[in-house]
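[recover] target loaded
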């Protein structure tokens, strides 16, 4: 892998809440990815291992990556808003990396996956999400399922919150979605981060 410059960045959400993230910039980067973390009330932050696995995959594919803390998590100020203001946090993160015409990946894990699926941007060329509970944001507020751009969903075979058997029927009406299942994993993907990274990297090659 080429050398990667890592810097801590701060930016404001739409209501002035100060957010913090890590910007990972490989040499000769082409494109960008923004990665959202799992539920902050249960310890989720940009330091999460699945977030790191996604970040490695996208950096390896030559994209700049911004992984950031939602309001009330990690180095960010403010308070958790149950998925409401967090959608604005993601839009602010995308604006902070100035993707221009893209290509941009909007990505997330668990809570962050649902937030990612609810946000669009003109530069986005795809969504890549891991273990979406599909319970954080109302179904009619999700934009990715009805969009023609590709949506890659990486699920755990033994997910405690939304197992593939529950997830597949919900995805049947999605316009352009692909489901990949990590057979040995539960929702937390312990010992299966490499598989998550491999599926995410393959999504960018498709």
């Amino acid at each position: 892998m080429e050398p990667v410059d890592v810097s801590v960045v701060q930016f404001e959400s739409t209501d002035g809440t100060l957010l913090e993230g890590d910007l990972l910039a490989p040499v000769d980067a082409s494109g960008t990815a923004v990665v959202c973390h799992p539920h902050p009330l249960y310890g989720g932050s940009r330091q999460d291992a699945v977030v790191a696995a996604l970040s490695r995959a996208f950096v390896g594919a030559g994209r700049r990556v911004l992984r950031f803390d939602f309001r009330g998590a990690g180095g960010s100020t403010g308070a958790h808003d149950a998925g409401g203001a967090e959608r604005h946090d993601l839009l602010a993160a995308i604006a902070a990396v100035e993707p221009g015409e893209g290509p941009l990946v909007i990505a997330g894990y668990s809570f962050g996956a649902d937030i990612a699926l609810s946000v669009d941007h003109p530069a986005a060329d795809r969504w890549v999400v891991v273990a979406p509970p599909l319970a954080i944001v109302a179904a009619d507020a999700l934009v990715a399922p009805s969009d023609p751009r590709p949506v890659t969903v990486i699920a755990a075979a033994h997910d405690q919150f939304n197992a593939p058997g529950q997830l597949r029927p919900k995805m049947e009406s999605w316009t352009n979605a692909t489901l990949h299942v990590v057979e040995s994993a539960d929702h937390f993907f312990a010992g299966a981060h490499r598989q998550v990274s491999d599926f995410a990297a393959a999504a960018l090659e498709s």
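[recover] notes: The helical segments are 49-60, 85-97, 111-117, 164-171, 193-205.
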